[in-house]
Amino acid sequence: MWQQLFDSLKGHDFMVVAVAQDSGGAADAGKWIEAAHPTYWSLIDVDHRVSALYGMVNVPRATWIDEAGRIVRPPETAGSTDHFRNMDPATNTLAPADMAARQKARAYYMDAIRQWVATGEHALDADAARARLPRATPDEALAHVHFRLGAWLKRHGRAEEGATHLATASRLHPDSWCMWRQAADFNEAGLAAGPAFWERVRALGDKPFHPPPDLAGFRGR
Amino acid sequence: MATLLTESGDFTVAATDGLWLDAADVARATGWTLKPEGMCRDEACVPLPASATRDGRVDLAAFWRLLGAPVVADSTNAVWSLGRAAEERNDALAGLVAPDFTLPDLEGNLHTLSALRGKKVFLSTWASW
């Protein structure tokens, strides 16, 4: 999906950096990267380091960085929406209207990126950017070290002890879907989308899973 | 031997009595250097209590707690994970300079975000799960 965006912006001083938040590393993320044939930077982040540094709690999330290396849009949902929550659990399908709305929202976000690259539009000034930054708590900071340790132990044959640290991380930082889903059981498709996932989504109630980006005209659900 | 997981990467270090390390190992893994005035990084120095240093070695876990930063070890004290304090991250982000990182691509080649200065960057996360 980013390849198309990147290709459409050839000739501009622009780069896409797509970072897989995958503790299993290439074993989990590799086949998706190979299928995408990326010419942009496609990186693997076994420690979810980017999420920790930028305060991202789900995927996909994105931040926009200008030529001087400054954040001009703090972490936000990268074009995804909550339409999947309307999915029919029996058939795992989405109504055509929801499918269309989802595609429209994604296209809208992609266009916003293109406008930014071409004209600078949608970049926030410093005060507005600062006001939208996520704020870490001591519990979240502690969660990240437990997550890092748990992921390391799991990769080094100590899955049981690793799981206790991953669970601690998730308890300390319950807003993080990345931490929860990375530790959850994967289904046959490699997705942490079993009954426990759907229960957790339902428990959000009116709260968004993918908060819509603050772009006039974007419809997230 | 212990494994140290820090913001700079994963390190194998000779640790004794918990996380007492040679000052050179501390510098390599954390960027903090032992000096007469304490532990120093960039322009800043933090005084180190006498109980946390001896014969050119440093009790890194004690120092990390002194910084108010999170540290956790496995059940055998062989793997230590050292993180960044919440306020440190908040202050860094408030400056709006994109936090830098170095990560591998599928072939193992390393890429550093700050090498892209001069370009606009769309930094996005995803996951297989």
Largest sheet of chain B: 4 strands, mixed
How would a crystallographer describe the biggest sheet of chain A? 2 strands, parallel
Average pLDDT over all residues of chain B: 96
Rg of chain B (CA only): 17 Å
Low-confidence stretches of chain A: none
Number of helices of chain A: 9
Poorly predicted parts of chain B: none
Q: What portion of residues of chain A belong to β-strands?
A: 5-15%
- Radius of gyration of chain A from CA coordinates: 18 Å
Percentage of residues in DSSP E strands of chain B: 35-45%
Q: Structural class of the secondary structure composition of chain B?
A: alpha+beta
Write the element-wise H/E pattern of chain A from the N-terminal end onward.
HEHEHEEHHHHHH
* Order of the strands making up the biggest sheet of chain A: 1-2
The overall pLDDT of chain A, averaged over residues, is: 94
What global shape of chain A is seen? globular
State the secondary-structure class of chain A. mainly alpha
Oligomer: heterodimer
The number of distinct helices of chain B, counting runs of at least 4 residues, comes to 3
Describe the structure.
The complex is a heterodimer of chains A (221) and B (129). Chain A is mainly α. Chain A has a domain at 138-202. Chain A has 9 helices and 4 strands. In chain A, helix 2 (26-36) links the parallel strand 1 and strand 2. The longest helix of chain A is centred in the middle third of the chain and has 24 residues, at 96-119. With 129 residues, chain B is of the alpha+beta class. Chain B has a 4-stranded mixed beta sheet, covered by helices on one side. In chain B, strands 3-8-7 form a 3-stranded antiparallel beta sheet. In chain B, strands 4-5-6 form a 3-stranded antiparallel beta sheet. The termini of chain B are far apart. The model of chain B has no long low-confidence stretch (mean pLDDT 96). At the A-B interface, strand 1, helix 2, strand 2, helix 3 and strand 3 of A face strand 9, strand 10, helix 3 and strand 13 of B. Strand 1 of chain A pairs parallel with strand 13 (120-126) of chain B, so a sheet runs across the interface.
